[in-house]
Write a structure and sequence with these properties.
Helix content of chain A: 55-70%
Largest sheet of chain D: 2 strands, antiparallel
Strand order of the largest sheet of chain D: 1-2
Distance between the termini of chain D: 60 Å
Structural class of chain A: mainly alpha
Number of strands of chain D: 2
Distance between the termini of chain A: 21 Å
Structural class of chain D: mainly alpha
Shape of chain D: globular
CATH class of the domain at 1-130 in chain D: Mainly Alpha
Shape of chain A: globular
Radius of gyration of chain D: 24 Å
Number of domains of chain A: 1
Order of helices and strands of chain D: HHHHHEEHHH
Number of helices of chain D: 8
Order of helices and strands of chain A: HHHEEHHHHHEHHHHHHHHHHHHEH
Chains: A mainly alpha (562), B mainly alpha (111), C alpha+beta (791), D mainly alpha (251)
Strand content of chain D: under 5%
Oligomer: heterotetramer
Chain lengths: 562, 111, 791, 251
């Protein structure tokens, strides 16, 4: 297994080496820089596909595979531990799939400082892949921050007029959330150390810790804030339109394509498994915010005149679906949410690339400037139509499967999880109905945008626009093929994520069943409340329960924590 | 009440020194002219001297420490002299280049 | 009783392949001279051949294996399974998550066979017709591509074995109608019409989606075979919210979906505007196939609707209302295609009534006949407009009988058919619905509900006959009112357009025979009824018997005299309608109607009817305008101002203000900093030193309370004077000097239960400074034990 | 109006001088005289004169120092300073630190004040705005802060109870200076504990301690003084150097 387990760090290291390589190139060799970056990203995509070879589709034991674990900071107990399971594998593939496309599309839109651009994109890819793979809380947090800097530079350097404002807002928004998360991480770290005496940040062991119920709620909220900002959940979304409008096309695509997925992934990987009781308690509130996000995003998108802002708000609406699917807490809902993430990655990237194509030609984002482009650029119109329909959720295309499953999951939600749902909401069905209205509004504003851009008579200034070049068609075709394949034949994707989701739900239910009380390891009674042994009570009295270190049974005995 | 007036104790001297010190500090805080500030510093040093000697006299008794106080007072005087010399040299150079020696206008080191 | 066949998936695949070739492949291969041009011939041959192949394949499959299975099924005696499975093929598992398993599967049974023939048959004719009609159109390949795509999607809808697969077809046809209505997208009017159609369909699909979810929630399955099982039937019957059965709610949701697609009362507004698309499109999509999808869906779900009579009542009721309402609106229309559009809405109303009262066969029969003569009518209208160089305004036409002989003959046949005159198809299908309605009764319905429906439909039938022949006379009889220039261009359409017209006319006359009325006496061949029986629910099924063992939904086997009588009435109604139309519009626009319009009341009525009862304006005001307003409000106020402005930028502003304040203080003046030091030092000393005063009390036996002062460890507490004032009279009741280290307890017994205010004052021995603290002491009664209060 | 004040100042300085020179011997006499009389351990029990002397000197010191920080004209400020130094010298005498009193007069009043006078001569410009902190609020807050700190300090210092009192029965305070290293006067090899005792304020005592236990601080101070002198010169004479530099450069 050793050979295969080195695969993940290789996938991680490749873009890093690529980035360094690009930076070493001579200053004005733009073409070379693009070529190298493109090569490296394609190589990384190939390598990530190679992960599938040793990856066992339906693993019997725990879900993490290809785990690579090396001591990183011994003092802190932080390991460079990476591993992949059904969920993160798909998201890794999405990332490595999108990056070459973005690099290819950035040929005409990014002309200044090309070398730096390629390097930044590759470093961003490293950050994203690392965060998806990380199984160590600290490692995850480090990669989570690594992602931030390139994105900030992307918006800051190549952005539009108010790019500084947008990039600062983006960074501070995300930073604010993630700091609270860091606090929660280290609280967890301390509690685990106190209970088991062994201080480690590895996710697998922290997962075994069950905190008292009220603490779980607070920790969950700390994590939830960090990820809700990233999702973006309804009230915390105002950074997204600014970031998208000011970001260059490449920045927008990677932001919408992958970065938004971290919010939902974070909930799925960290917030919910670690604090199930908190998640169950907060499920109704977050579900409400998600539905509000869907409807609100759709309404506000309709009121936009700037097409990029419209698509940005559409992302808020689509990811609302993901969130509500997640908090349906049943297999259909969660798999629907993951599927919707992947399809959103494809369709919204397609939309942003389309806007990029048009922006490169006319350098304006106002919809009223365009009109009648269908007759002028038929090939572009066809591809743009498919991406738009995928985003609207036309059955047969990728959008529908995700949306259908999330709505379906929410609809039958109360049957699977008693905790948290029934005592608050009138009924998940009404919530699902409210979310489904998003399907109508989605059609309203996307068709409105499509008509404003494509139909109507051709304006004077749009007369000269020439249709897509072969390069641009090359950019769109993988996305379009992906949208069709994901729409008609979702079986392999669902088969890959099934075991991971079942594992998630099983461990979630187990931990939910744990009794309230001081922090303890799943299954083991809380330390200090050991069976009162024969020694004189007075002596036991003086060791306060929390400090008493539970005798760590010798190696091999049940309950031994290595 | 009158006993406090007549029976001198150590604290009389200490409180006097404290008052003198406060006046010195007031001088440093409130006055603009560098020389007056220098003089106030001298006052503060003298206050310190009085305290040292008061304690030396009040507590030393036969113990040889009695002279420690005085040696220190001597050293303080010497240091005060050195400080005054250098301080005034600076004031003179400042005056020569600025035509004034008001401390509150010397704010070059602000940022 | 079902057979798997390998060829089933080819039927939808062929047209889809044609569409793919036309839209993508041919363009790339053909030598593009800078602009992507591909030869017209290549386009329309691929299109027509693909649909024709689908038609031939379906004829083969229906004629072959399905016919055998049908005969076998018919010969089975009593124990025969109620539903004949027909041909089934599962291509691959589409979505499989947890207990939800959806296969991309197709099923051809007798009901979908009928629809199949209608779609592919009429589809082929319309494809041929389009060659002539769309000649010279720049986006020729796109048109045929979309037409093929539509046919493919419609076939998926009809052949879909489970509701989600049907949903693919359902939204697919919605997409194609969007693309085809907005085909001439140069003018915004057409693009808006397309968008309106798609969004109206989308509203229907919203309900359809929820219907699927609720269905699965109830019965744990989505494909039609499992839904027929006893378990799911019983699940459908248990009560859902509000006492109504689950079946009612699901039925209602699916009916809203059907309304969206088949343009019934609330969601019909998109159909008249859909005339903006090319006429063959209106013929295929908005007459024959897509709009009937709703009726087909309800027929397919007959087992579900049968279990909820209230849902059936609603379907029938809305159907009748739409029929009447649309017929009235058709009276005053001046555009040829608009009249036909309203007639379609009205005829769909008839079908929904047929399906709503449980006479599924009648509904489907009318669907078939309507498909033929309405498609024919649209094609004829197309050739008339073709002749009149594109204008559809009937006030400018007239006297075209001699100029367009072939079109005129077919138009006349269609009008007779739709008016319900004996030999023609319309008579039989409409009569069957009327007869069904007359005799219909069901559990939980109002007693005369059937009769009421019959009356409404008869009036609607009268209206239909009237507006159709008003159209006929205005277009064909009287002298030509076209201006000279267009008059010179009037010519008969080419054969490629008129031959389909004649074929459809032939069908319109013959097709009526498959659904002859039920007569006890004379045994007339009821072909369609027997053919559809294996696919539809039969009401004698045990689960459907109501308490008294009678079938809950009865069709009422009226006596022969009754049926013949009803047929007579229907015929008379038709004739009266035609006569009225002849009287008014015999020779061109009638003076009488014009005079009537001048009168104050008549003019008002005419204006209202002409403006389609202002329904569009109502929707605009009640739904669209508020939608835009809230959108703008949410964006401007909530998003930009509230969240962005106040919270985000607000906090940034506060920090900025604080930083500016700090910058003002640091102005380089050393002495200012020293003053800061001094003041800071003073404050620290001040706050650090004030002693934290307080006292604890403990209630001993009875009302005796012990007080224990605790004084902050200020330097000057030694020897301080502590005084307690228990009765708040100002002068201290007890005073003692405080000796640190030694615990000082001051006992005092209060009068009785209740809370008292106790103040403790401490005077500093050195500076004689007084510190005071007051607290309320709750003295409890003897039983509730001691109450300890700590500072 | 301030001429009156100035004249009044001159009178007070003169009085301080006279008193000082009179008081010193009187004080010594008193010390001798009281040596025999029984004196409580803590205070000048029986001599009211000494108390009056203390309060007078205290007034002199504080008055002088207030003069220093309030006078607009720097020369009067210096005079106030001198008065303060003399009063402080008097206080030293009361504390029996006679050597220190003399040093005080010599170094402070003599040397440092003279230095100040020289500098004042150079940059004696009439002060237009004496106060650095503008506005009553700043000055008021500073004053209150100082007063409060003084009050707290005083309340603490007030409780200081000295152990030996200011006047010991014997005027002479025997200070046994323990020699723990071979005294040059003693034959080598024999280590003998020689205790010498000096009068409290005498020069020998201070001198002895200074050159035995505190030799290193003495050397350090001398270096400091050297550095100060060199520093003062270095700072104060760049003017001429520029001139020379200019000459050298211009060949």
């Amino acid at each position: 297994m050793n050979g295969a387990s080195a695969l993940l760090p290789a996938v991680l290291a490749l873009p890093l080496i690529g980035a360094i390589l690009v930076m070493l190139l001579p200053k004005d060799e733009d073409g070379l820089a693009r070529g190298v970056a493109m090569g490296v990203s394609l190589l990384t995509f190939g390598l990530s596909l190679a992960i599938l070879v040793p990856y066992d589709i339906n693993p019997s034991h725990g879900s993490m595979q290809l785990v690579f674990d090396k001591e990183w900071i011994p003092g802190l107990g932080a390991h460079f531990k990476v591993g992949v399971d059904g969920i993160s594998l798909l998201l890794i593939l999405l990332t490595t799939f999108l990056t070459p496309i973005i690099l290819l599309s950035a040929r005409t839109s990014i002309t200044s400082k090309v070398r730096e651009f390629c390097a930044i994109m590759l470093i961003l890819e490293v950050g994203m892949l690392g965060a998806f793979m990380a199984l160590d809380m600290f490692l995850f947090y480090v990669f989570w921050e690594i992602m931030l800097i390139p994105m900030y530079l992307l918006i800051g350097i190549w952005g539009g007029q108010r790019r500084i404002y947008a990039s600062i807002k983006f960074v501070i928004y995300t930073m604010l959330g993630s700091l609270l998360m860091l606090v929660a991480i280290f609280y967890l770290y301390a509690q685990y150390g106190a209970v088991t005496g062994e201080y480690t940040l590895d996710l697998m062991s922290l997962d075994k810790l069950v905190l008292p119920h009220n603490v779980q709620v607070y920790c969950f909220l700390a994590f939830a804030l960090a990820f809700a900002i990233k999702v973006p959940l309804f009230p915390l979304h105002t950074w997204l339109p600014d970031a998208h409008v000011q970001a260059p096309t490449a920045g927008s695509v990677i932001l919408a394509g992958v970065l938004l997925k971290f919010g939902v992934y974070g909930f799925l990987r960290f917030a919910m498994p670690l604090f199930p009781y908190g998640a169950a308690q907060m499920a109704p509130y977050i579900a409400y915010l998600a539905v509000a996000g869907i409807v609100y995003g759709a309404f506000v998108a309709f009121a936009q005149s700037d097409v990029k802002k419209l698509v940005a708000y559409s992302s808020v609406s689509h990811l609302g679906f993901c969130m509500i699917g997640l908090f349906a807490l049943n297999s259909q809902g969660i798999e629907g949410s993951i599927y919707a993430m992947i399809s959103h990655g494809l369709t919204t990237s397609g939309l942003f690339l389309a806007i990029g194509v048009v922006y490169e030609r006319r350098h304006t984002r106002e919809m009223s400037e365009y009109g009648g482009l269908w007759r002028q650029m038929p090939v572009f119109a066809a591809l743009f139509l498919i991406c738009m329909l995928g985003s609207v959720g036309l059955p047969g295309l990728s959008g529908f499967v995700g949306e259908f499953l999330t709505i379906f999951g929410t609809f039958i939600a109360d049957k699977s999880f008693p905790v948290g749902w029934d005592h608050f909401l009138p009924h998940p069905m009404l919530l699902a109905a409210a979310a489904t209205t998003g399907v109508i509004f989605g059609a309203v504003y996307l068709l409105y945008m499509f008509q404003k851009m494509m139909f109507g008579e051709l304006k004077e200034q749009n007369k000269g626009l020439q249709d897509l070049s072969w390069r641009e068609i090359g950019v769109f075709t993988p996305l379009v093929i992906g949208i069709f394949v994901l729409g008609l034949y979702p079986k392999p994707i669902i088969k890959v994520m099934n075991p991971a989701v079942d594992q998630f739900i099983r461990s979630y239910k187990e931990k939910l069943a744990e009794p309230d009380g001081p922090a303890h390891i799943k299954g083991l009674p809380a330390p200090g409340t050991e069976v009162p042994t024969a020694e004189a009570p007075s002596e036991a009295g003086d060791t306060p329960p929390n400090e008493a270190v539970a005798p760590n049974p010798a190696h091999g005995e049940p309950g031994h924590i290595d | 009440m009158t006993s406090a007036f007549y029976d001198l104790t150590v604290s009389h001297f200490l409180i006097l020194a404290a008052a003198l010190f406060m006046i010195g500090v007031a001088g440093v805080l409130l006055r603009r002219n560098a020389i007056i500030v220098m003089m106030s510093i001298e006052l503060m040093l003298n206050a310190a001297n009085i305290t040292i000697l008061a304690f030396s006299r009040g507590f030393a008794g036969e113990h040889r420490a009695a002279f420690q106080g005085q040696t220190f007072a001597l050293i303080v005087i010497a240091i005060a002299a050195a400080e005054a010399a250098v301080g005034l040299a600076i004031v003179v150079t400042v005056f020569r280049s600025r035509r004034h020696s008001d401390i509150d206008r010397l704010t070059l080191l602000k940022n | 009783m079902e057979k798997t066949s390998k060829l089933l998936f080819l039927i939808p695949l062929l047209p889809l392949a044609g569409a793919f070739l036309n839209l993508f492949v041919w363009r790339v291969l053909s030598p593009s001279t800078g602009r992507l041009r591909q030869s017209d011939k290549l386009t329309h041959y691929t299109a027509i051949l693909s649909v024709l192949a689908a038609f031939v394949l379906s004829c083969y499959l229906i004629g072959g294996p399905l016919w055998e299975q049908f005969n076998v099924w018919r010969k089975l005696g009593e124990g025969k399974p109620e539903i004949m499975g027909g041909l089934h093929q599962s291509v691959w598992t589409w979505i499989e998550v947890g207990s939800l398993k959806i296969n991309l599967a197709f099923r051809l049974d007798t009901l979908s066979a009928v629809m199949l023939l209608v779609i592919t048959g009429i589809g082929t004719l319309i494809h041929i017709y389009s060659v002539g009609y769309m000649h010279g159109e720049k986006r020729y390949p796109a048109y045929f591509g979309y037409l093929n795509l539509f046919t493919g999607m419609m076939l998926i809808l009809v052949l879909g074995d489970s509701l989600p697969v049907m949903f693919i077809g359902w939204e697919g046809v919605g997409l194609c109608s969007y693309l085809l209505i907005g085909f001439y997208f140069d003018e915004d009017k057409n693009a808006n019409a397309g968008r309106k159609a798609f969004i109206a369909n989308r509203v229907g699909d919203f309900a359809f989606l929820l219907g699927i979810c609720l269905l699965f929630y109830a019965t744990k399955s989505v494909n039609f075979a499992d839904l027929q099982s006893a378990a799911s039937i019983s699940a459908l019957k248990d009560t859902f919210v509000g006492g109504e059965r689950m079946a009612f709610m699901i039925g209602l949701l699916f009916f809203i979906g059907a309304c969206g697609k088949s343009a019934q009362i609330p969601l019909y507004v998109w159909l008249p505007d859909a005339m903006a698309g090319p006429t063959p499109v209106s013929a295929l999509i908005h007459a024959a196939t897509m709009v009937t999808a709703g009726v087909y869906m309800i027929a397919r779900m007959s087992f579900l609707y049968a279990h909820s009579t209230t849902a059936m009542a609603i379907v029938a009721g809305i159907g009748a209302l739409t029929a009447l309402f649309a017929a009235i609106m058709a009276f005053a229309q001046t555009d040829l295609k608009k009249v036909l559009a309203y007639s379609t809405v009205s005829q769909l109303g008839f079908m929904f009534v047929g399906v709503g009262i449980g006479a599924y066969t009648a509904g489907v029969f009318h669907l078939i006949t309507h498909a033929f003569f309405k498609a024919g009518l649209f094609l004829a209208a197309g050739s008339v407009m073709h002749a009149m160089s594109g204008s559809g305004d009937i006030t400018k036409m007239g006297g075209l009988r001699k100029l367009l002989p072939r079109t005129h003959i077919s138009f006349l046949v269609y009008c007779l058919a739709i008016a319900g005159i004996v030999p023609f198809a319309g008579f039989f299908s409409k009569d069957e619905i009327l007869a069904g309605a007359f005799g219909a009764h069901a559990e939980g319905w109002a007693p005369l509900y059937g009769k009421f429906l019959w009356a409404v439909l008869s009036v609607a039938a009268l209206g239909t006959a009237f507006y159709m022949f008003r159209l006929y006379f205005l277009v064909f009889s009287g002298e030509n009112r076209a201006d000279a220039e267009t008059k010179s261009h009037i010519h008969e359409s080419p054969y490629s357009m008129t031959i389909p017209l004649l074929i459809l006319a032939a069908f319109a006359t013959v097709i009526g025979l498959i659904g002859l009325p039920h007569l006890q006496g004379v045994h007339l061949p009821t072909i369609l009824h027997d053919w559809l029986a294996p696919s539809l629910v039969n009401f004698e099924r045990p689960s459907l018997l109501d308490a008294k063992g009678l079938p809950s939904v009865g069709e009422g086997h009226a006596s022969d005299a009754m049926t013949l009588g009803l047929m007579g009435v229907a015929l008379v109604v038709g004739m009266v309608g035609i006569a009225a139309a002849y009287a008014l519009y015999g020779r061109g626009p009638s003076a009488k109607v014009a005079k009537m319009c001048e009168t104050e009341l008549g003019g008002e009525v005419h204006r209202v009817v002409y403006n389609k009862f202002y329904v569009d304006e109502l929707y605009e005001a009640s739904i669209l305008a508020p939608f835009r307003a809230t959108a703008r409000f949410l964006y401007e106020v909530v998003d930009r101002f509230l969240i962005d402005g106040i919270i985000v930028n607000g906090s940034a502003y506060i920090i900025d203000v604080l930083s500016r304040l700090a910058r003002w203080f640091q102005n380089g003046q050393v002495q200012r900093y020293l003053v800061g030091v001094v003041i800071g030092g003073a404050l620290i000393f001040y706050f650090a030193s004030s002693p934290k005063l307080g006292f604890k009390y403990e209630q001993k036996a009875g009302n005796l309370v012990e007080f224990r002062p605790d004084v902050g460890e200020g330097m000057d507490a030694k020897g301080a004077l502590i005084e307690f004032d228990f009765d708040l009279d100002g002068e201290p009741d007890h005073s003692a000097s405080f000796v640190p280290g030694q615990d000082m307890i001051v006992p005092y017994s209060f009068g009785g239960e209740g809370s008292y205010k106790v103040t403790m004052t401490m005077t500093d021995s050195v500076f004689k400074k007084k510190y005071k603290v007051t607290r309320t002491v709750h003295v409890k009664g003897p039983d509730t034990g001691r109450e300890g209060g700590a500072q | 109006m301030n001429q009156v004040v100035v004249r009044w100042l001159w009178v007070s300085i003169a009085a301080a001088l006279v008193v000082f020179f009179v008081a010193a011997p009187g004080l010594a006499l008193a010390a001798e005289h009281s040596a025999q009389a029984e004196v409580s351990a803590h205070t000048f029990k029986n001599s009211k004169a000494v108390a009056f002397l203390f309060w007078f000197l205290a007034a002199g010191t504080l008055g002088g120092s207030i003069f220093v920080i309030t006078r607009r004209n720097m020369v009067t400020a210096v005079m106030g300073m001198v008065a303060t130094f003399f009063a402080i010298a008097g206080l030293f005498l009361m504390l029996y630190a006679s050597f220190l009193a003399v040093m005080q007069v010599l170094v402070y009043a003599g040397a440092i004040m003279v230095l100040f006078v020289f500098v004042i001569m150079i940059l004696n410009r009439p002060e237009d705005e004496p106060w650095a902190i503008h506005g009553l609020l700043g000055k008021g807050m500073a004053a209150i802060g100082l007063l409060y700190l003084f009050k707290r300090l005083a309340s603490i210092l007030w409780q200081v109870k000295d152990t030996h009192g200011l006047v010991v029965e014997k005027a002479q305070l025997a200070a046994d200076v323990v020699l723990n290293h071979a005294d040059p006067g003693v034959a080598a090899g024999t280590k003998e504990l020689i205790t010498r005792s000096y009068q409290f304020g005498s020069v020998e005592g201070v001198g002895y301690t200074l050159f035995s236990n505190y030799l290193f601080p003495f050397e350090a101070v001398s270096i400091v003084l050297l550095v100060a002198v060199v520093g003062a010169i270095a700072i104060a004479r760049p003017l001429h150097k520029e001139a020379e530099m200019a000459d050298q450069e211009a060949p």
